[in-house]
Predict the structure.
Amino acid sequence: MATFLAFTLASATFDPIGVLQQRNPPPPAASIEAKKRDLHLDQPIPQRFVTWMGGVVQGDFGRTITDRPITDELGRRIGVSLRLFLLGITIGILFGVLLGVVSAIRQYKFSDYFATLFSFILLSTPVFVLGTLLKMGAQGINDSIGTNVLIFVGETTPGFQGNWFEHLGDRLQHLIVPTLAIALGQIAYYSRYQRSSMLDVLGSDFLRTAQAKGLTRRKALFKHGLRTALIPMATLFAFGFGLLVVGGTFTERIFGWFGMGDWLVTGISAQDTNITATVTLFVAVCVLFSGWLADVLYAALDPRIRVN
Amino acid sequence: MTTSELQFDAPADPVVDGPVLQVEDLHVSFPSESGRVRAVRGLSYHVSPGEVLGIVGESGSGKSVSSLAVMGLLPSSARITGSIKFQGRELIGQNDAELSKIRGRRVSMVFQDPLSALTPVFTVGDQIAEAILVHRKVSKQAAAKRAVELLDLVGIPNAVERAKAFPHEFSGGMRQRAVIAMAIANDPDLIIADEPTTALDVTVQAQVLQLLETAQEVTGAGIVIITHDLGVVAGFADRLMVMYAGRAVEKGKVDEIYQQPRMPYTLGLLGSIPRLDVSEKQALVPIKGQPPSLTDLPDGCPFAPRCPMVVDACHTAEPPLMDVDGSAEHAAACIRTNEIAATDAEGAEAAVEIFGAEVAAEPEVAKIPREQRDIVLGLDNLVKEYPINKGVVFKRRVGTVHAVAGITFDIREGETLGLVGESGCGKTTTLMEILNLQKPMGGEISVLGTKSSEVDAKRRFAIRRDMSVVFQDPMASLDPRLTINDCIAEPMQVHGYTKDEINRRVPELMRLVGLRPEQLSRYPGEFSGGQRQRIGIARALALEPKLVVLDEPVSALDVSIQAGVINLLEELKSKLGLAYLFVAHDLSVVRHIADRVAVMYLGKIIEIGEVDSVFEAPRHPYTQALLSAIPIPDPVKERQRERILLTGDLPSPANPPSGCRFRTRCFLHASLPPEKQRQCIEVEPPRETQAPDHEAACHFAQIRQVL
């Protein structure tokens, strides 16, 4: 549905032929007509969508306006995006939860105020500012060490030669700074939610029961408290992932990563319906997947949901 | 079942001589916005091995806080001073790691609310096994096996299977059993039970109390039982301590306290409890006012503002606990104990004398024989069912909950019908159907002769004037953003009263329910629970109804406040000739206030009739069990009483047993020969007249006295 809307909207507003016609010198009319046919622009929009979807079902996402098959590039771009976001979000969740828990346990103490301040600063910093700051920081570290340890442009060094191990090292060097850019925001975001959900659990009777059994406070908190406090977070984690894949556009652009977010921007500026529709479809799939993931997480964490 | 390493020690093997727990001059305070809350102020008590100490008091009296202090489970903001010695070892000042070695091993605790006391994400068996694993070096298998044994011990059927269940799959009573299993897992020397039965139904309450007694027998532990209900501890405790405003105001042997209370507060508490075993109309003692604020205590006796015996000397200094009647065990904190001792009456009767309580007069209409009075509310074979649906997209009906399965009763002018039963029996559904006034799924509801199935919206609106409702929770039933004036005036505005009429009537209603009209511009948040319930009653009376539906109107209130509200309801009934439908699970209150009583079980009325007849000579086994489950605040009587314990919980109303619905839990059914049992299984017993105005639905109905 989302894909259809995006396709229709893109088809209706994009005017690749107009761009073509305004070229100087203007291309010959015959080639414009040929281009129109190639792009199926002579057909009405619903029919174009059906044609495109027909291809998608067979694994063909159509061709870009520059006449390259989308399918070829799709795999690579998904790989780039997922590598960045999966890592970023995992770190974000891990440390976000940890920070939230610590914050809740030490409510109104210095560490809680500090975590709160840290989160609010990060949450109110636009990602491009954060990205730039990180770049500067990374440059500083590089300068002080003397070699380029942290590389913050691109996802791999062009023309890099070496065995798979060196390749891995090279990719890691590229990965650190952008991952940090994503993770920091996520940490800030999740720690806030985790803090309040943990605070709810802190006052609960079962935590008192656990302590009355003879568990120390710390043990009771981590065994009985954390697990229960994670339940409401499951939805957040899952959908956070689904939406971040597109939300990461800025991050990808700043660090010169050619992922899905970057592609969307490229597609729109090139007035390319197929790219736009493909990225939208990908996001839709991600969101559906996250919904499923949320259900699975819920069932894993909360036995009350596991019916039959 | 041989896990020898985990058996209980033989009972009664005192580790050290002297008391298990010795609390001396305990003070606990918390910071709050309006100053330090002094929750416990100089409390001293002891518990000997194998002894049961009851701590009684209203909410906010410091009884729970003092026991949490013993467990070391108070928040870190609490300031604790004094001494808590457990088996001679000082607990105050110990760190969490050291305390956790004692908690659950030597001292364990049972909490009030079993619904939230277990971690929802772990199985019950695991949680019990954890209690063992924390303290003992045993294998996980051994601990799991022991957990099953413990579940079996606390009376959970099919323990092997049930150990794998999660807490949400357990009923409230079963969860409390699991918590008790946890508490006795390590054979403790002291068990603290904090209101262990308050959240439970009476039949389950009796089971849990019995279980605590068993627990005490197998572990030989000393028990501290905390409660606000003097009935619960009467038969169970050896000694009693009454707390008020953070201090002990009276302590002594149970019999002494119940028979010769020497502190006006204890007297008031005893006098405020409606008695199940008293047939003549008994005067209930309301304790006026509210407990004092713990941030700003008066100089003198904290009970002085509420005390009927107050003299000037009471305001000068707080009286210490002093021995009374020359007994070293019995002490009371009152300067006029000798005068109380001088009264001839005992226990609750002395309270009536001192507090000057009166029995409300019978309403005028009650003098006309019942049959000649108008029927205010009539239910004829009322049925309400809920579908059970499955599936998200395609809902299919997979079953039916028979919430109300054909009930019939009527209420006549100036009469109170008590509707009682365990939770889940359909009381609330019946009530909602009556208030809804729609055409029922089956049967008929008629209000003042008008059938609900035959009325249009306009007529229905008019009927609503004659019928009003007071809800259970006085906190939730008033809009916090409306002034009291608006709350009470609202029904009149809706029904088109003029401004002048409303302005005249609202202050009148306030006076009627015992509140001052000057308070009208205040908001509900500024009133106490009892006062809010009075406001709720004033609102219900605004339209001069003929019938008031009362949904557990006093169950959320403290005992001393409860008596005042009950007295008010009786007084109003007598003054205004109201009819009440009084829904409650507390049979003592029902006996006190109702003229007739209907007992519900699984959507059916199994016994109905004149209140004295039903209580003195109950015919249905379920009524007998219900009545015998209710504790009587009289230690001598209570110890002699034979309890009928029902097994298990209420069956699901989605799948009620065939024939007689009660047969699965019926002790009578179990004792019958097979051919008679067949009748119970196959034929649903009809409601038959047993005595004048007394019907019961049992094939083998026979009188059994249980009080």
About this structure: The longest helix of chain B spans residues 202-219. Chain B touches chain A at residues 71, 73, 96-97, 100-105, 108-109, 111, 113, 116-123, 130-131, 134-135, 166, 168, 179, 182-183, 186 (CB under 8 Å). Chain B is about 30% helix and 20% strand.
